[in-house]
Amino acid sequence: MDNKEKFREVISTGYTFSGDSIILGTSILDGEILENNQVKAPLKTFNRHGLIAGATGTGKTKTLQVICEKLTDKGVSILAMDIKGDLSGISQPGEANPKATERSQKIGIEWKPQGASTELMSISDEKGVKLRATISEFGPVLLSRILDLNDTQSGVLSLVFKYADDKSLPLLDIKDLRKVLQYVTAEGKEEIEATYGAVSPASVGTILRQLIALEEQGADKFFGEKSFDVEDLLRKDDNGRGYVNIIRLVDLQSKPRLFSTFMLCLLAEIYEKFPERGDADMPELIIFIDEAHLIFDQASKALLDQITTMVKLIRSKGVGLFFVTQNPTDVPNEILGQLGMKIQHALRAFTAVDRKAIKLTAENYPETEFYKTEDILTQMGIGEALVTVLNEKGIPTPLAHTLIAPPQSRMDILSPIEMDALVDKSSLAREYNESLDRESAFEILTKKLEQARNQQQAAEQANQEAKEQKKAAEEPSMIEEAINSRAGQTIIKEVTRGLLGVLGLSTSTRRKKSGWF
Question: Residues annotated as region Disordered (predicted)?
Answer without folding.
Answer: 453-477
